[in-house]
Design goal:
heterotrimer; A alpha/beta (479); B alpha/beta (390); C alpha/beta (274); A: 479 residues; alpha/beta; eleven-stranded mixed β-sheet; ten-stranded mixed β-sheet; 35% strand; C: 274 residues; six-stranded mixed β-sheet; 9 helices; 39% helix
């Protein structure tokens, strides 16, 4: 391998690492019942939500941080963290023209123009900055179709019945340590409601930006697709470079009723820390979708490239008959990153089907674990699962672990699991080089070939971006 | 269909001793309380069946009685065996495993002080075949047995263990195997239990480069069967072939926890684990494969195939692959299914009755492992023992 | 075609190379002019494959002495991809499989890398498809192979055709074909040889590395060189290949011994023509 050329390559710096200098309304560090009440009060929430928060908080206090994953990080001091930070502006503006231009500029720098002239014509965006949503585009146009797309804070005020009906029904307040923490202190996030029979006319997308250095980000996303409805939703995230770690403990809940389809894609590019593992986001996220209705379908696609640590298992509970769950994932780790990610497919109803395609790429000194559960319950006659999880190792200091757990209680079920490990061989690289293809491009071709099955699942606008992102993240890692 | 052993409830069936008294007795033997399901290694395996036996030790008949040792096999005295004992257990990090503790841990002294049968064999040259019947019969209680095999450089042996039980008792079998460079061992185990019987079989193996270890385990009929093959390729470069078949019906629980670690380059593993679960049987498979950084060039393949035949049976499988070397080829696969409808239909369309067709397919499923057992096993009609007359 | 006034494309002088500190090439001299077809023959282990890898810049080989000039410029300084872009092509003896990378995309990226180096505009996907379909004719390859991953699951013959297809697209000035005939049945060999002949022109040159005469029955070389022990032992016209076919390589051993003795006396490598 041409180590000389590679050794000389300098890693591309993280290009979203800037900090926006903006006046922020922050509460004091620390967490107790009063902080939970304060957050709820700041958001003028109805009593049911305050109760939901307080109950989760009490349960969280009784819980232990999970330690079963293959992750190593210093203990997190939950009292040394700010639980609410918002850019200081009055209530959310009715029109984009009134939003602080600095914020608009921030999102523009991130490649997410919000202003009417520049925004993408076929993607509606909810932009979340630290703890609050600052703008949601195309709200009115979507409303014409009956689609609700707004921040969850607004939804609490404008559609309290829907929130009360669905919030916490997929991921209960006491589901796990981080979900309980989120339930107690969640700040903002997106709410999507697609009424019966409506196919959402455009892509919906939420863009999360952590700006403050000592703020935990606890957003909460709830997507409900009623009977026969369908939606494709994309989540993107970045954060500035700090040499401290920030905690990101989000909860995403999806509900699909009869014949509904929800496609949820994530391109995650949080700051991953530097090459020595200093700084970066701790991404401890609970994502779960419930196929409540018959013939409903939930599909998760994720491209995980950032974060110092990722702990995340987007899951599907397949309750409805003939419901379908899918999980397509690319997780790339480099330098000192650690990822423990995978999915859970819980087959409850008969003839439920699930597909898992996971591609892990580990480079540098990183560690990348796939952890999956396929559970076929006693009533899931005719259930089918196919899982494929492949690992690619780049360099000899990286680790790839695979823990695909299968539990089956139904004889009329078929579960198939396949896994493989490969690497980019020096001979393959030389072959491509000898045809005039540069070293980096050769790597990138092979990596994107490895990931193709997953990229094909991304909305078209983002597939190319994911490809580029991966190439960028791998620069200088081979040799 | 799988032959159903008469469903005798095992708990409390033995000589009137209470389960808690037996549990206390076992704990005192092991110097550690019975495993419980809060321990990751026992998460899916309830050792309760063990508490159904009488709290007393029993001996197994000398497995070498009435047979001559083939040339190249030499029995080691406890003193001669002593320096070897514990080596493979330590190397495979098995010393604290409960079944090992139950068998007086690693120390030969402790083994000698208690009525634990110890059989230590040294193999040199091509030693041919040997069978070791380990029958607990219908004696009530716990039989403990230790086996040590030192296979010298270039030596070969084909050994068939036959743990069996005909009553409410338990056999705990701890084997240590040391394979020197170029040594070849085929270690078969055909373990047939009875209602209420338990089998704890712990096999620690250390392989030197160029050695070959083929391990075929078949178990059926035990209320609880726990197999723990643990293999370390000390400097890589060895060949390990694991074949397992576990059949559990009635309310039986069969569990295999395998562990293979490559501590050097160019090792090879070929593992096939098969399970059949019928009635309310529960089958557990946990297959760990460790490929540390030093193990470049490792080739490891693991396949787990389970047949789930009843809607009250249950299968838990969990492969665990930990890979830290980049130039390796590791693949694993797992399938869980019932008999293939198309295959059944194909046979039926040729005039074979449905239940007969099912039996044929089950036999074929089992035969893939059974045919690899050492030749002596054929006389024991393993298929018949597993699946009944067909 | 021998044309003494044609420009020199490749000039190899006293080239020495090692792999894992094991010297393999011990002073190779060879001059290749435009329009010429050279054949390097020799037994396994004679160093002929090493020569091709070193020329293409394989990182496993270290050049320990000598020089290689390509159209007057130092070749050894260049990265493998740069060598390809300026017109050096290696047809591999064992082309690797690259799962996941589409053959069509691979061919397009490679072709465009070569084109932009030559100041030509890059071809878009449509223009490229037209080009590739036209060039497929050269090797009579089924377009279905474009949709597959690079060499993945290709038979030996299909892999070699894919190599010649790349050659047809990249239009190299110097094409080195390493044991292109190995593993080919006679029909595949004819197709591959036909492709090479079709691509040969007065502007470019071909260096065939082969074990057997049978490829040279189909592609007529202007020069034949016999390699042994890391050197070119003897050079001549096509009749040298025919002589080898008749007499085998046994005389090589005798000659080697003689050279070894001479080398000890004079301390210099034997000289070649070319």
């Amino acid at each position: 391998m041409s180590t000389a050329t590679v050794g000389d390559l300098v890693s591309q710096p993280y290009k979203y690492g800037f900090v926006t200098d903006i006046e922020t309304d922050k509460i004091a560090k620390g967490l107790d019942g009063d902080v939970v009440r304060l957050i709820s009060a700041k958001k003028s929430e109805p009593p049911f939500l305050l109760n939901f928060r307080l109950k989760a908080f009490r349960q969280w206090q009784q819980m232990r941080e999970p330690d079963w994953a293959q992750l190593g990080y210093p203990a997190i001091d939950y009292q040394d963290m700010v639980y609410y930070a918002a850019p200081r502006q009055q209530a959310k503006k009715a029109s984009l023209d009134e939003v602080d231009p600095k914020l608009l500029e921030t999102f523009e720098k991130l490649g997410i123009p919000l202003s009417e002239q520049k925004r993408l014509s076929n993607v509606a965006v909810d932009a979340v900055f630290d703890s609050v949503s600052i703008a949601t585009t195309f709200r009115e146009q979507l409303a014409e179709h009956g689609v609700i797309f707004c921040s969850i804070s607004e939804a609490v005020k404008e559609y309290p019945d829907l929130i009360e009906k669905y919030l916490g029904t997929v991921v209960p307040g006491n589901d796990n340590f981080f979900a309980a923490l989120n339930s107690a202190v969640f700040s903002d996030g997106s709410f999507v409601f697609i009424p019966k029979g409506v196919a959402c006319p455009m892509e919906l997308s939420t863009y999360f930006r952590i700006n403050s250095g000592d703020t935990g980000q606890f957003e909460r996303t709830l997507i409900v697709a009623e009977e026969g409805a369908s939606v494709s939703y994309l989540e993107g995230c970045t954060a500035p470079m700090f040499d401290t770690n920030q905690l990101h403990a989000a909860v995403v809940e999806l509900v699909a009723l009869d014949d509904a389809t929800i496609k949820y894609s994530t391109v995650q590019n949080w700051y991953a820390g530097d090459e020595n593992g200093v700084g970066g986001i701790y991404n401890f996220v609970t994502k779960r979708g419930q196929c409540r209705g018959d013939r409903s379908k939930i599909s998760w696609t994720q491209v995980e490239t950032g974060s110092a640590i990722t702990w995340k298992y987007p899951s599907c509970v397949l309750q409805g008959e003939d419901s379908v769950g899918e999980f397509y994932s690319v997780a790339l780790t480099n330098n000192r990153q650690q990822a423990d990610t995978g999915t859970k497919m819980v087959h409850v109803g008969p003839r439920t089907r699930s597909t898992i395609v996971s591609k892990g790429i580990s480079a540098g000194h990183s560690s990348n674990s796939y952890r999956g559960l396929v559970q076929i319950g006693p009533k899931a006659q005719g259930a089918r699962n196919y899982s494929q999880c492949d690992s690619m190792l780049i360099g000899d200091q990286a680790a790839a672990n695979t823990y695909p757990y299968i539990r089956c209680q139904q004889p009329d079920a078929a579960i198939e699991h396949e896994a493989s490990t490969c690497r980019i061989s020096a001979d393959q690289l030389f072959y491509l080089q000898s045809r005039g293809i540069g070293f980096e491009e050769a790597i990138s071709m092979m990596v994107s070939g490895f990931c193709r099955d997953v990229f094909n699942q991304l909305p078209l606008e983002f597939a190319a971006e994911a490809d580029k992102l991966l190439a960028l993240k791998l620069e200088g890692s081979v040799g | 269909m799988v032959a159903v052993v008469p469903a005798t409830p095992y708990a409390g069936a033995a000589g009137g001793a209470s389960a808690s008294a037996t549990a206390a007795w076992l704990a005192s033997l092991a110097g550690a309380p019975l495993p419980n399901r809060r321990q990751e290694d026992w998460r899916f395996t309830d050792p309760a069946a063990l508490t159904g036996i009488d709290p007393q030790l029993i001996g197994l008949a000398d497995p070498l009685a009435a047979q001559e040792l083939p040339d190249g096999l030499e029995c080691l005295s406890p003193a001669a065996a002593s320096p070897w004992l514990g080596q493979a257990l330590a190397a495979t990090t098995s010393l604290e495993h409960w079944p090992v503790l139950l068998n007086a841990g690693a120390s030969a002294g402790a083994a000698a002080a208690q009525p634990t049968s110890l059989l230590a064999l040294r193999v040199s040259g091509a030693a041919g075949r040997l069978q070791l019947p380990l029958d607990a019969g219908d004696q009530p209680g716990l039989a403990r047995f230790r086996l040590l095999l030192v296979v010298e450089a270039g030596a070969q042996l084909e050994l068939l263990l036959q743990p069996s039980s005909g009553g409410v008792n338990a056999i705990s079998l701890v084997s240590e195997v040391i394979l020197e460079p170029g040594a070849e061992l085929t270690l078969g185990s055909l373990a047939i239990g009875a209602a209420g019987s338990c089998l704890l079989q712990h096999t620690a193996v250390v392989q030197a480069p160029g050695s070959r270890f083929e391990h075929i385990t078949v178990s059926a009929g035990w209320a609880l069967a726990r197999q723990e093959p643990r293999i370390l390729q000390r400097q890589g470069g060895a060949c390990t072939r694991l074949r397992a078949l576990q059949v559990c019906c009635d309310r039986q629980l069969a569990d295999t926890h395998s562990w293979v670690c490559f501590d050097g380059p160019d090792g090879e593993l070929d593992q096939l684990h098969k399970a059949v679960a019928d009635d309310q049987g529960r089958s557990v498979f946990n297959g760990a494969v460790r490929v540390p950084r030093a193990a470049q060039g490792t080739r490891a393949a693991q396949l787990s195939r389970s047949l789930l035949l009843s809607d009250r049976a249950r299968i838990d499988t969990k492969p665990e692959l930990e890979i830290l070397a980049d130039d390796v080829k590791c693949a694993h696969g797992a399938t869980v299914s019932r008999l293939q409808a198309e295959e059944l239909f194909y046979l039926q369309s040729r005039g074979i009755a449905a239940d007969q067709a099912a039996q044929l397919l089950q036999r074929a499923f089992c035969a893939e492992v059974l045919r690899d057992l050492p030749a002596g096993a054929a006389a024991l009609r393993p298929l018949h023992q597993l699946l009944g007359e067909g | 075609m021998i044309c003494p006034d044609a420009p020199v494309l490749l000039e190899i002088r006293d080239l020495q190379a090692a792999v894992d500190d094991q010297p393999i090439l011990k002073g190779v001299n060879l001059t290749i002019r435009a329009g010429e077809i050279h054949a390097v023959m020799g037994r396994n282990g004679s160093g002929k494959s090493t020569l091709s890898k070193v020329l293409a810049g394989h990182p496993a080989y270290t050049v320990t002495g000598g020089s290689v000039h390509y159209r007057g410029n130092d070749l050894l300084d260049l990265a493998p991809e740069q060598r390809a872009r300026i017109g050096l092509f290696l047809g591999f003896q064992y082309p690797v499989e690259i799962p996941g990378v589409s053959n069509l995309e691979f061919l397009r990226v490679a072709t465009n890398a070569r084109r932009s180096e030559g100041g030509l505009e890059e071809l878009d996907t449509f223009a490229f498809e037209d080009l590739v379909r036209e060039r497929l004719e050269v090797v009579k390859m089924d377009p279905a192979f474009l949709e597959r991953s690079v060499n993945e699951g290709f038979s030996g013959g299909e892999k070699k055709r894919n190599e010649i297809l790349q050659m047809a697209l990249l239009e190299p000035l110097v094409a080195i074909l390493d044991e292109t005939d190995s593993g080919l049945d006679i029909d595949a060999l004819r197709i591959v040889a036909g492709g090479v002949n079709q691509l040969a022109s007065p502007e470019n040159a071909t260096l065939l590395i082969t074990h057997y005469q049978r490829l040279l029955d189909l592609i007529t070389p202007d020069y034949v060189h016999v390699m042994a022990a890391g050197r070119i032992l003897r050079s001549g016209g096509r009749e040298l290949a025919l002589e080898l076919e008749r007499t085998g390589y046994d005389w090589v051993d005798q000659e080697l011994e003689r050279f070894a003795a001479e080398g000890q006396q004079t301390g210099r490598a034997p000289l070649e023509v070319g």
